[in-house]
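A common beginner's mistake is to predict each chain separately and then try to dock the pieces by hand. The better habit, illustrated here, is to supply every component at once so that their relative placement is modeled jointly.
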Amino acid sequence: MKNKKRLEEQFFLWIMRAVTASIILVFFLILLVILQKGWRALSWQMVSEVPEGGFYFGKSGGILNAIIGSLYLALGSTFLAVLIGLPVALGMNIHFVRKKRWVSALRFLLDALWGVPTIVFGAFGFAIMTYFHLRASLLAGIITVTLFIVPIFIRALDEALRTIPIGLLEGSYSMGATKTRTAYSVFFRQALPGFISALLLAFGRSIGDAASVLFTAGYTDQIPHSLQDPTATLPLAIFFQLSSAIPEVKQRAYAAALILTGIILFISLISRLATRKFKKNIL
Amino acid sequence: MSDNIISIKNLKVDAGNAPILKNINLEIPRNKITVLLGPSGCGKTTLLKCLNRLTDLHPQLKVSGQVLIDGEDIFHPKQNITRVRQKMGLLSQKPFPLPMSIYKNITYGLKIKGIKDKKQLQSIVEQNLDDAGLWEEVKDRLHAPATRLSIGQQQRLCLARGLAVGPEIILADEPTSALDPISSRKIEEKFLDLKNSYTLIAVTHILRQAKRLADHIVFIYLGEVVEQGTPDAIFNNPQTAILKEYLQSGH
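With all components supplied together, the output reads:
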């Protein structure tokens, strides 16, 4: 009997080890493939110049247009998503805590929106644009991307806020704090790691999505100078170059993928380090 | 001033269709320790939470009746809830320090009151940590996170932050249930010190603790006040069968 339990423990322990290892393996395989295929095309020129004539046939130039475009787009939409999402998520857990039915309806709605494919958001954005006779632009891209990352951001933060014990809320209230003060100086601090995760999730989705920006932000070889300019993005740079038949261009697609992955890893690392200081206060 | 700081009139609390408190009428004496005694689930905690309107947090609770504190009805719709809550310090079953430093845990309530002067804040922090019996243990690490304190220290920190807002009443909901005997004893000793300047209302189901602390005991059973009186009357001369049974099984 004792032996059987031990065997069972061992069995599940090894299953866990195996799946964990396979996840790490997949991560490194992805890195390895883009490194191996892309590092030769990666050069200073690649990250510091915009495409020149004949770039898409293997001539010289870089993808600075897409790097800058992606950063503008992702930072802009993540900023908007936090601006909209933070009050909503805090409100769902503090101000409207008495309206349980309303809040769970909202959760359901947001989950449904999370599941909607981004191309649908792209099509929606495109429809709005044609209605107002707008052309593809950075602004249209930011709005479309914001629309699909807001539900992600809210729900991810909401899940973190839901784990906060009600005793903390009572503690804050019992000292006379208002709901809003409790929300921003207690709940927000307590949920800071969850907030960072939600932020990274939203940022990662916004910088990595191709479908929603295809029709809304467009594509251009120039760096955008205003919100009305069409904007190139890294995922589309990968997409266009990868579909080329020319080996040099294909290689550049992998280099672009490498840059995209690098940006995401860099931002993740920085934000984790930056919030380490605050983490010690958490219950 | 009357001798009763709180008077509860026809207080009823319902959760859905189930009554939690049925028509409570109670007077709480000033500068005394009143102990709410009773088995688990009898409504002690709910009664305590009605007193500073933490029942607002729970949508399923329907509250009716009156709670008069210094003659003011706290459930009056125009009542200033911040002022009502700052009249009371709360100790919960488990301490919940705010996610900030020890120092800021105490200044939190003060800043709500609008106190900004640094020197004044510093002296209030020191005074209240001292009153809660924590100053000597934390004076060198006031800016360390409150969560690094032991659970007994956290509970005294929660007492200190409650005292800092200058309340008249201290509400304690089984304040020692998560603590070891030594930490519990420290809290109990503090309570006996504090009753000179505060009115204390403590919920407990530990009979010995009730005996040690109480000036006035209210025995609650199934949402009703069954019996109340001095510890002597309650423990040595119980009137009702249910209290007799409770006292017997508790020993």
